[in-house]
Write a structure and sequence with these properties.
By secondary structure, the protein is mostly helical. Helix content is 71%, strand content 0%. The protein is globular and about 55 Å long.
């Protein structure tokens, strides 16, 4: 990989890691469901008028938009609003690689090899350590919601691989068009119109900046740059850089938010990142239903980072 492209790959990982810190700041300005709705609205409009609809059936766009945009990101924002630290969220979401492998085995007929099974076990061990650490220092419900978000992320990865969109950026823009209406409706029902109106009336530069970052920098720039790299290099060359996302997420949360990095959280990070690497790179899965999509397309929101194994994930 050329040095300038290596720099670009690291920059995207940095953008996606810092994204969790920006979300944390944004949650101080908006209720979580409203914030998620605004994030996708600004990511989709006006970009949707400048990129062609991906050459896939409309049903796939709607389905992934609901699973990824409404379920996955809704749960991430709710979990972080309920006390899940930004750095830990960036780490725990990587368990999506395990959910992706399991769901791909069930629905795509893939058969993970022994190395991948070992990676899943190591990653789950990391989740157990992180859960113990979070239970000792903060509310567990946010942790549970983020793990549930990772499961929906895994499901959206499998659905995306079945849809097989040819371009990451156009796919992400059009998928982003789906969540705003259901998320606005959920915000009205759960958070109430008064909370939403108060947040919009009190909108300041910092609040607007968080929306711009998560929508345009993390999503539009992040996926555009990642798709550019994947058009010039094999996924196996580009995807390992996504393992830097939780590193940047945890370090930026410590530096910018003052989050404490405990010895247990470091152990959890080593186990999770190592387990995800084994799960993602431990040999290609076999099976009649296996499909590989050479583009990063879930949303590592762009709350989250692409799964290194197939490049079909999104940042937080």
């Amino acid at each position: 990989m050329r040095p300038v492209h290596t720099f670009l790959a690291v920059l995207v990982a940095l953008v996606w890691g810092v994204n969790f810190v920006v979300i944390e700041v944004g949650l101080d300005h908006f209720p979580p469901l409203l914030f998620s709705a605004l994030r996708f609205l600004v990511a989709a409009v006006p970009a949707v008028f400048f990129v062609r609809r991906p050459r896939v059936a409309l049903g796939w766009i709607v389905l992934v938009g609901l699973v990824l945009g409404v379920a996955k990101f809704g749960l991430v924002f709710l979990g972080m609003d309920l006390g899940m630290p930004a750095g830990l969220a960036s780490l725990v979401l990587q368990i999506q690689a395990v959910f992706t492998a399991v769901l791909a085995a069930v629905f795509l007929g893939e058969r993970p090899g022994p190395v991948r099974y070992a990676g899943m076990a190591v990653a789950l061990g990391g989740i157990a350590v992180a859960a113990h650490d979070q239970g000792a220092t903060g509310p567990v419900v946010g942790f549970v919601l983020v793990v549930a978000a990772a499961a929906f992320w895994g499901l959206s990865n499998v659905l995306t691989r079945k849809a097989a969109p040819p371009d990451a950026l156009s796919w992400m823009v059009w998928v982003s068009l789906v969540p705003p209406l259901p998320m606005f409706a959920l915000s009205l029902l759960v958070e109430g119109p008064d909370a939403g109106m108060a947040a919009l009336r009190g909108l300041d530069l910092a609040g607007a900046g968080t929306i711009v970052y998560v929508a345009w920098i993390s999503t539009i720039f992040g996926f555009g740059a990642w798709g550019f790299l994947l058009r010039h290099y094999d996924a196996s060359t580009v995807a390992p850089f996504s393992l830097l996302v939780p590193v940047f997420g945890m370090s930026s949360a410590a530096l910018l938010l003052g989050e404490r990095v405990t010895p247990l959280s470091l152990v959890a990070a080593v186990l999770l990142v190592g387990g995800v690497a084994l799960t993602s790179f431990g040999g290609r899965a076999a099976g009649r239903g296996a499909v590989t999509v050479p583009d990063p397309v879930t949303v590592p929101d762009p709350v989250t980072a692409p799964s290194p194994g197939d490049g079909t994930s999104v940042p937080g």
